[in-house]
Amino acid sequence: VPLEVLEEMNKLEECFPRLSKNYRLMEKIGEGTFSTVYKAEALNGSIKLKSDLWKSPPLRNGKPSKKTGSKKNPIVALKQIYVTSSPSRIYNELNLLYMLSGSVHVAPLLDVLRFQDQVLAILPYYSHSDFRDFYRDLPVKGIKKYMWELFHALSFIHEKDVIHRDLKPTNFLYDPFKGKGLLVDFGLAEKAESTNNYKNINVCPCINKDRSSATKVYNKRMNFKAAYPKQDQRPPRRANRAGTRGFRAPEVLFKCTNQTTKLDIWSAGIIGLSFLTRKFPLFNSPDDTDALLELSLIFGLEKLQQSANIHGCGLEINLSEDITNTGNLIKVVADFLRYESENKGVPDDSVVHDTLSILNEKGDGIVKPTPSQASEDASFDELMDNYLDHKHLFQLLYGCFHMDPKKRLSANEILKLPFFSELVH
Ligand code: ADP
Ligand code: MG
């Protein structure tokens, strides 16, 4: 453990008299804008873990170590929520964690320590791998398990009307060896009904800023004529736009005030697309209007404009039509497939062709691949199975990427798609 971190941990222990009595800080495992997370050992039976999940000993080279771990002290994650975040924000996070305890898909709140304005949330420590270490190599069966776990977690919280709002790989802890994953970080989460109340978190001060950007969003409501944002004296649209760049759904980017749990489904789709294209992060723009441009390169400008209309906005992008019209999901995926089949020596375009036909049908019918050069080779069959899986994955992504949140599938509907059929018992 680096010296600065040791010093930080010492300071924390001084701050919290009860901390050093019940916990031994081990190391720092995360640091963000609103919190720092430490790994710690719970001492003196201060924490009793109900679920076996938390008791299992750490994996060594993929195999459990010999000790059963039953006599070992539980390992916890200690989340120090900074005072810079408002008391109501801290309360919201703790309250939601408390409310969501009891599922294997959400890290349950075990305890909370407070000293003056400092708050520490105690959660079971969950061993997981960094997404960057496996998103390139996880085979499609592994992707399936990841997405299965992810949509189960979403199904659980959405049934309780909770929108996570910040779904991304660092907030979904996944262990590719165990095939288990769980959601953390409810710092931006909220109950779905309350989304119409403007909260004091991350409210965008103004969307109609004059930008050098080629992308413009304007508010169509309140009889918009030919005037452009520069002269627009109307108050800017305000809505919760909390989230992380690259994962925000179109309705969040358009500042729609009636946001629903479906915005998490979009973010889950972005994770799926990262797996499929083996690219992470997929999008980089820190700016909402530029993020719309990035989306139009993948989904096509027309779709984004339709989405703008649904939310009472207009969208204009002053770039050559070639760029915004040709860029679309089908092309991105087809390029990827061609690349994969070239690299794996798969004969041909038929795979690509079949896939495209599925995409064109918008995922309604599944065509079994009929390779022109059929082969008895088992590994070839396996490859074809993989491609069938890939097709089903596209179908899933289509469900996640409906521009209209009402048409976008729910987590429960997605779990019933053919992509997961082999996991349904
Ligand atoms: P932040 O609000 O700062 O993003 P998070 O709750 O997302 O805080 O935690 C930050 C990081 O700490 C996570 O990305 C993860 O790596 C680690 N972490 C959080 N909770 C746990 C846990 N229960 N077990 C293991 N690691 C955790
Ligand atoms: Mg986080």
Main pleated sheet: 5 strands, antiparallel
Q: List the strand order in the largest sheet.
A: 1-2-5-7-6
Report mean pLDDT, rounded to a whole number.
79
Poorly predicted regions: 52-59, 195-212, 221-230, 359-376
Task: Give the strand content.
Answer: 5-15%
Helix content: 25-40%
Give the cofactors and ligands.
adenosine-5'-diphosphate, magnesium ion
Encode the helix/strand succession as letters.
HHEEHEEEHEEHHEEEEEHHHHEHHHHH
* Total strands: 13
Concise overview:
The protein has 15 helices and 13 strands.
Can you give a write-up of this model?
One of its GO terms (cellular component) is nucleus. GO terms for molecular function: ATP binding; protein serine/threonine kinase activity. Its EC number is 2.7.11.1. The chain is of the alpha+beta class and 425 residues long. The protein has 15 helices and 13 strands. It has helices at 3-15, 17-22, 52-55, 87-100, 131-134, 140-159, 250-253, 262-277, 288-299, 301-310, 321-326, 329-344, 350-360, 378-400, 411-415; strands spanning 23-31, 35-42, 59-60, 63-64, 75-81, 111-115, 118-124, 162-163, 172-175, 180-183, 190-191, 215-219, 313-317. It has a five-stranded antiparallel β-sheet with strand order 1-2-5-7-6. The protein has a two-stranded antiparallel sheet with strand order 3-4. Strands 8-11 form a two-stranded antiparallel ribbon. Helix 13 runs parallel beside helix 14. The chain is globular and about 65 Å long. It binds adenosine-5'-diphosphate and magnesium ion. Adenosine-5'-diphosphate (ADP) binds at residues 29-30, 32, 34-35, 37, 77, 79, 107, 123-126, 170-171, 173, 184-185, 187.
